[in-house]
């Protein structure tokens, strides 16, 4: 259902203010930081802490978070492979809009399928936009021990079907820009690692 193109006879309409103009108005460059990992690995925790640190540095971010987005624009999607693919397709497009305005989009989705993440990356890179994949790497045993929402317990009890890591696959990134081993690093170290990468890539330079 999802990738079928039904919109025909539509033509892109250009404006007279460019992306570069928008970046100048905002004084910063846009980029997507794509956090991927198991439920409970720390995607949301890292994004929240990073947003706070970037705000301190005067950088505007917007967090797109799995649970939040699934309460709104993606409330019609479940957890079948097809629905997860459509979930990630929409998030990729939404993140791209934020980047186009000059905002740092921090996306926290399990995004278990490599092909879906690669599509989100391609969408950005074809448009000359930064896409930084951050693998929030946490062993299943540790994520299950944390179980911040009690979902692993329910999945083990068979109350949640197709639960990532238990009864559904997670395809780890092969060449992410950054790996955060959240069972070994502190939250402060994780935020510092992301900031260091953003600095190295010139993403935090004022425009
Ligand atoms: N079956 C199943 N598998 C995995 N996760 C489940 C499932 N059912 C509900 N949840 C809750 O939904 C959150 C994951 O949503 P995402 O949009 O990130 O998932 S995905 O990227 O489309 O795979 C996930 O949030 P996080 O724990 O923040 O990852 C869970 O709270
Ligand atoms: N080093 C760490 N980095 C991130 N989260 C951690 C770390 N150590 C423990 N945690 C805990 O792990 C849980 C991760 O939950 P959450 O951020 O919601 O994960 P996700 O968004 O990947 O589902 C939180 O309760 C958080 O406090």
Automatic annotation (TrEMBL):
UniProt-annotated binding residues for ATP: 37-44
Top-rank taxon, per record: Bacteria
Keywords, ordered alphabetically: ATP-binding, Kinase, Nucleotide-binding, Phosphoprotein, Transferase
Any one GO BP annotation for this protein: sulfate assimilation
Catalytic activity: adenosine 5'-phosphosulfate + ATP = 3'-phosphoadenylyl sulfate + ADP + H(+)
Single GO term (MF): adenylylsulfate kinase activity
Domain called APS kinase: residue spans: 29-181
Matches recorded under Pfam families: APS_kinase (PF01583)
InterPro entries: APS, APS_kinase_dom, P-loop_NTPase
UniProt-listed Enzyme Commission number(s): 2.7.1.25
Active-site residues annotated for this sequence: 111 (phosphoserine intermediate)
Family the entry assigns: Belongs to the APS kinase family.
Function: Catalyzes the synthesis of activated sulfate.
This protein's name: Adenylyl-sulfate kinase
Lineage, opening ranks: Bacteria, Pseudomonadati, Pseudomonadota, Gammaproteobacteria, Nevskiales
Gene designation per UniProt: cysC
